[in-house]
Q: What sequence folds into this?
């Protein structure tokens, strides 16, 4: 059973690579960012609580996140493996996850995508995503074929609310302060694989596959 966790700064390509790997292994791609954005779109209670936090680039409280992930991992499709993208983002979340999946880090692989901060700020300015299906684009490297219309579903392709410069800075800061310790935590358990995240999507994907063998 494959239990894969992606760690990387915002805009490091986690979402893109996690989606690919999920279809390669035929296991669900569980993105907490996508789940939260869906809740915001649907105007649920969770969405109303998370929206201002996300827009500012801060982190949604641990207890809320742990609850969401616990429920999601209990679903049938996650019983034969999963790819987590965006969780755990804090040490508290990492410790809770251990308890949720049982037998600790047995079978777990953690992929850390390494991308320098300067590259992140540039990438995010050109990032766009589909408001409907979440497909991710980059205006230079991977633009939608028809202007601002999604290739997959035809909905509008837009910049994320939290992809503005101030929010990006806050997200980077949260990453350094709260998420890097999570990588160290997994490193100490020898399940961390560090992968260079700079370069074309295909090349990064090859590095990821290699690191998992
Ligand atoms: P990023 O590109 O910044 O990694 P994500 O799509 O993973 O973005 O998440 C977007 C926002 O959702 C985060 O900035 C944060 O506010 C919230 N979020 C997602 N996952 C978590 C989590 N595990 N814990 C706390 N907040 C989260
Ligand atoms: Zn779409």
A:
């Amino acid at each position: 059973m494959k239990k894969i966790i992606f760690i990387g700064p915002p805009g490091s390509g986690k979402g893109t690579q996690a989606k690919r790997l999920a279809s390669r292994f035929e296991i669900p791609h569980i993105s907490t960012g996508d789940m939260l954005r869906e809740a915001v779109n649907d105007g649920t209670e969770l969405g109303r609580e998370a929206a201002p936090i996300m827009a500012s680039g801060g982190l949604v409280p641990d207890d809320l996140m742990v609850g969401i992930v616990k429920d999601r991992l209990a679903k049938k499709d996650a019983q034969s493996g999963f790819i987590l993208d965006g969780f755990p983002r804090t040490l508290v979340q990492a410790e809770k996850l251990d308890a949720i999946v049982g037998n600790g880090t047995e079978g777990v692989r953690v992929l850390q995508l390494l991308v320098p901060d300067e590259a992140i700020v540039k990438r995010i300015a050109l990032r766009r995503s589909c408001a409907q299906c979440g497909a991710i684009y980059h205006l230079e490297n991977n633009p939608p074929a028809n202007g601002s219309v999604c290739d997959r579903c035809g909905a509008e392709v837009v910049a994320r609310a939290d992809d503005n410069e101030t929010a990006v800075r806050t997200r980077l800061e949260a990453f350094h302060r709260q998420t890097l310790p999570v990588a160290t935590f997994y490193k100490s358990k020898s399940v961390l694989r560090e992968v260079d995240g700079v370069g074309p999507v295909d090349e990064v994907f090859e590095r990821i596959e290699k690191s998992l063998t």
Observations:
- The two ends are 14 Å apart (CA to CA).
- Strands lie at 2-7, 29-31, 81-85, 108-114, 127-130, 136-138, 157-158, 192-196.
- The chain has one domain: 2-116+176-211.
- The mean pLDDT is 94.
